[in-house]
Amino acid sequence: MANRVSDILQTLDTHHWAHVATKKNPADCASRGVSPVELSEMVTWFEGPEFLKNRVIVCKKPKHLVTNLEQVKVHAAVVNTTLWLRFSSFSKLVRVVAYCRRWLRVRKGLSSRPSSEALERQEIEDSIRVCIKKCQEEGFGEELEELRKHGIIDKKKKKLKTLNIFLDSEGVIRVGGRLEMSSLSFNEKHPILIPKESFLSGLLIADAHQKTLLGGPQLMITYLRSKYWIVGAKSLIKKYYRGCVTCTRYSSRSTSQLMGQLPSARVTLNKPFLVSGVDYAGPINIRISKGRGNKSYKGYIALFI
Hints:
10% strand, Integrase_H2C2, two-stranded antiparallel ribbon, Integrase zinc-binding domain-containing protein, two-stranded parallel sheet
C-alpha cells in the first residue's frame, strides 16, 4: 500500500488532488469503525460516492483554507550549550568567564581597570555562580520556574522531591536536609544541585579527581558533596574513574605464576609413613631465657613429613 501511494504521489502533481468530505468518503467507515448494522445500510461503502458516477468530476477548491483551530502562543528558548564544550577543565572555564565579566564591567563603565591581571576571590566566586545558574537553567528549567513562583516543585517529580530543594538568596537551587543546627558550613549543609546530563557535572568530576590526587570514587564523592550535589553522581564518577588511564594502569592486578603439579606421593592413597620427606632450615638465633647477659645460640629446624 505504501509503495502504491508513493507511486501516485510521484506520478501526479499536487494540483490534481482534492479534498473529499467525511460524509462522502467510504474510507472513513473502515478507519473510524462502524457496527455491522450501520455498515449494511451504508450505500457509500458498497457503491462509492455519487460524484464518481458522473462522467465529469468537478472539484471546487477553496482559495483560502479556513479553520477554527485555537491559536496557541509558543515561546521557544534557544540555549547555547556549546559554551561548556569549549573547555576541558572546570578551573579554565571559571577563569575565562571571570575575565569576560571583568571586561564587560570595564567596557560599560561599572568598574575601573584593575591594577593587576590576577583575578580576585570575589570575581572567581561570581564566575562560578554564573556557570552554575546557567547550568541549572538548562537542566532544571521547569523546576526553577516552579520554585520562583510557588516555592515548591510538583509532587510528580519524585527524584527531586525527596531532596527538598529550595532557592537561596542568590537564586541558586540547593538541596535541603536536617543539618540546619549543625556546625557545618552552608555549602556542606545545603549543597548546590547539578543536573546529571550537564557538561558541567563532567568538569566538576574531573576537577575533583585532580584535587584529590587521583582519588577513588568514594573519596571523589565525599569531596564533591562538600559543595555540590550531582544527580546520579555515583554512576558518573565510577564511569570517569574507569576511563582514567593513570588509575587503570596503577590499579591493575599483577599476574601470579601458576604452581606446579603435586607429586604422585601426595595425591596417591598409601599406608602411613610409607613415603616420607624431610626439610631442613637454619641457622636461627635461640635464647634460652630472657634478661641481660644471656647468650643466644644457633638452632636448626628439621621437619619430617
